[in-house]
Design a protein that fits this description.
Blueprint (H helix, E strand, L loop, with lengths): L4 E2 L11 H6 L3 E8 L2 E8 L5 E8 L2 E4 L19 E4 L10 E5 L6 E4 L6 E2 L6 E9 L4 E8 L7 E8 L13 E4 L4 E7 L5 E7 L10 E7 L5 E9 L5 E6 L5 E5 L6 E5 L20 E2 L19 E5 L2 E8 L2 E8 L5 E3 L6 E8 L2 E7 L6 E6 L5 E6 L14 E6 L5 E7 L6 E2 L8 E5 L13 H7 L4 E6 L8 H4 L9 H15 L8 E6 L1 H12 L5 E5 L5 H6 L8 H5 L7 H6 L13 E6 L7 H14 L3 E6 L9 H19 L22
Parallel strand pairs: 1-32, 33-34, 33-35, 35-36, 36-37, 37-38
Antiparallel strand pairs: 2-3, 3-4, 4-5, 6-7, 7-8, 8-9, 10-11, 11-12, 12-13, 14-15, 15-16, 16-17, 18-19, 19-20, 20-21, 22-23, 23-24, 24-25, 26-27, 27-28, 28-29, 30-31, 31-34
Length: about 675
């Protein structure tokens, strides 16, 4: 191998180009099983972000939903649970029939094998998600969101007849089974169809704050009997209720401070009217108590972390000390046995007879739909999220780090050193550091391969991906560090992570950058405004005005800020004090903004107010608005533009040469870069 070239950090030529990243990349999600057939969804940037259903059988992999159908639901705006698969609804129904929500009109469609999709619901103000098939009654049971009236939409659980009389579409939107709460999720039928369980919660709580698990008998007419409260409340978050093959109800609860597995047997249910104040400990069995997280924040419908191999065995994932594991739990002996797999991160776990399917991610290869043989341990890769193959000599392997932060506490993150086998930097030079603040903020980052990070490290730019206080995977107490402290704890942890790497000689203290999307965009803007550590940054559909967010966002998050900031309008002064838009006088470094013009979660005016203020102040600023994009970019040309645009911005601000030409971004006030 020839000797490496000498070049400054940031100027290294990399084979990991934006074109390569987006050329064949897809977004994998929503796995469903039908016997041995595995279904999943693919978000395709090359098709304008369209999400298609794909299946894998013994005959190979094929698309199911044709263009232009886009399988996405807008319930809670974030969606999830956009389709389900029928094995056999009735003798007349074909196995493998799928029911899905189409993004453009939010109607439910039915697609039988070999047939074109046909509408099941009319054009209306209804949206549907998280459906299960009630085979014995030939209907779907799902969450419905009603947008027909002004004000907040109304959420219910409804039943939809799969063979409605007199019409091919359900004009009434279905039979309401459960109503009265602000939100619902996870309606699930027992194996014999006699009982339905579900989750509910109310404002101002989010599903990771407090949810309630209910069970009710299904009556002969299809309605529900009285509902029994099984677990949950305002201080307990219940996740993924699931019936075992022998008819017992399993779920995940964080009642001990950690999301652990529990079991409840229907025979233990009281015949008396449910008492909302009843002790949720009664009739529950903890299966495997650990200081580990078997659950996740319910940002989207249909999230799963376990499934049943049989009534005696379940397969589950859990995070312990920041590391994710796959294991088998014997439901009789309660022995937990780890299953070795070549992945650092797992998502969307579904379990069939003798196998498990999931989205697996490693540190050095794109995520993939994987099939694990539970008998032999063999793993088959069915579909990768990208055809991108990179020589390991250009890849940076993440290092899990802990670092001190405010109040004597510890925060976490993944550090990626600059790495490119073809280059070395001049002696004594320290690299530019890009700190990444994940969205949510109730979410987390992982060590899975991320080509968007390798894009930076292979060019000689170090990256720190921070799991700041408020992130999941470290228990409820860590998650609740952010309660009332959004814009403080997260910012401090990002700042202290950067300082930690500077102190260790791994980053240039004069070239520290930060970026983030959505809530991570807010952390980015707050860090740049209220601290004097970072020298530049990028906001992707980030929040600049907390008051505007409280007054102009969708139902699911309309009270989210109560827990993160305070009640509005009672605590308006706090909202004003923590909003970067009201403290632009404290901001003195360059910023670039990327925004979708159809974003309903963080509308474009959030970015535009900040851009205009920065222009008026004479600071270097750039604004890239994408037509037809929502909250998160799905079109390949926009993903490419965002990667290259951010790199170009930093190169202009810090004055380093790029190895390759990229499309320029218009930067206002560039002449002031570097002056403070």
């Amino acid at each position: 191998m020839p000797a490496p070239h000498l070049a400054s950090y940031g100027s290294w030529k990399s084979p990991i180009t934006s074109d390569l990243i987006v050329a064949s990349s897809i977004r994998l999600g929503e796995i469903e099983l039908n016997g041995k057939t595995i279904y999943w969804s693919e978000g395709r940037p090359s098709e304008g972000g369209r999400s298609a259903i794909v299946c894998c059988t013994e005959n190979g992999i094929q698309d199911i939903t044709p263009a232009p159908f886009n399988v996405r639901t807008r319930v809670h705006e974030y969606g999830g649970g956009a389709y389900c698969v029928s094995q056999a609804v009735s003798q007349d129904a074909a196995a493998g029939t799928i029911y899905f929500s189409n993004f453009a009109d939010q109607r439910l469609y039915r697609q039988s094998p070999g047939m074109a999709p046909e509408p099941l619901t009319p054009e209306s103000g209804f949206r549907y998600a998280d459906a299960v098939i009630d085979r014995s009654r030939n209907r779907l049971i799902c969450v419905r969101e009603d947008h027909r009236a002004t004000g907040e939409p109304i959420n219910t659980i409804v039943a939809l007849d799969l063979n409605p009389s007199g019409s091919s579409a359900l004009e009434d939107g279905g039979q309401v089974l459960v109503s009265g709460s602000d939100f619902y999720a996870a309606p699930r039928l027992s194996p014999d169809g006699s009982r339905l369980c579900w989750l509910s919660w109310n404002h101002p709580y989010m599903p990771w704050d407090g949810t309630t698990l209910w069970v009710a008998a299904v009556q002969p007419d299809g309605a529900l009997g009285k509902a029994d409260r099984v677990a949950g409340g305002v201080n307990e978050a219940v996740f993924q209720p699931e019936w075992s093959p022998d008819g017992r109800l399993y779920f995940v609860s964080d009642r001990t401070g950690w999301w652990n597995l529990y079991r409840w047997s229907p025979s233990q249910s009281s015949d008396t009217s449910p008492d909302p104040e009843a002790d949720p400990e009664v009739n529950l069995e903890a299966l495997c108590p650990k200081a580990a997280e078997f659950g996740q924040p319910l940002w989207v419908f249909g999230m799963t972390t376990y499934g049943f191999e049989s009534s005696e065995s379940l397969v589950c994932t859990y995070v312990e000390a920041g590391i994710q594991h796959l294991a088998r739990l014997n439901t009789r002996s309660l022995e937990l046995t780890e299953i070795p797999i070549p992945f650092a991160n797992l998502g969307g776990l579904k379990v069939g007879e003798g196998y498990a399917a999931f989205i697996g991610g490693s540190a050095t290869a794109p995520s993939a739909i994987a099939r694990l043989d539970l008998y032999t341990g063999e793993v088959a890769i069915l579909r990768r999220s990208s055809d991108l193959t990179v020589d390991p000599g250009y890849l940076s392997v993440p290092e899990a780090i802990e670092f001190p932060t405010e109040n004597g506490l510890t925060a976490y993150g993944f550090y990626y050193a600059p790495h490119n086998q073809d280059y070395v930097a001049p002696a004594g030079e320290k690299p530019l550091l890009l700190v990444k603040s994940h969205g949510g903020p109730t979410a987390s980052t992982s060590a899975s391969f991320n080509p968007g990070i390798q894009y930076w490290t292979s060019r000689g730019i170090a990256v720190l991906d921070v799991n700041y206080g408020g992130s999941t995977g470290y228990g409820r107490a860590y998650r609740e560090r952010l309660k009332g402290n959004w814009g403080i704890v997260d910012v401090d942890d990002c700042v202290n992570g950067a300082k930690y790497l500077v102190a260790k000689g791994l980053a240039d203290g004069d070239r520290l950058c930060i970026d983030g999307g959505s809530a991570g965009g807010y952390t980015t803007l707050a860090a740049l405004t209220f601290r004097d550590v970072f020298k530049a940054g990028a906001s992707f559909y980030g929040v600049s005005d907390l008051e505007a967010l409280a007054k102009d966002t969708h139902k699911f998050e309309s009270r989210y800020l109560d827990g993160l900031i305070g009640k509005y309008p009672e605590d308006r002064e706090i909202y004003m004090a923590r909003s970067p838009i009201h403290a632009v006088d404290r901001l003195s470094c360059p910023l670039i903004f990327f925004q979708g013009d159809e974003d309903k979660i963080v509308p474009p005016n959030q970015a535009e107010m900040m851009v205009n203020a920065l222009k008026a102040k004479g600071l270097p600023v750039a604004y890239v608005l994408y037509e037809g994009e929502q909250h998160g970019f799905r079109k390949s040309e926009n993903i490419k533009r965002t990667l290259d645009g951010e790199l170009y911005f930093y190169a202009q601000v810090f004055g380093f040469e790029l190895a390759d030409a990229v499309e320029p971004v218009a930067i206002e006030n560039l002449a002031t870069a570097g002056s403070k």
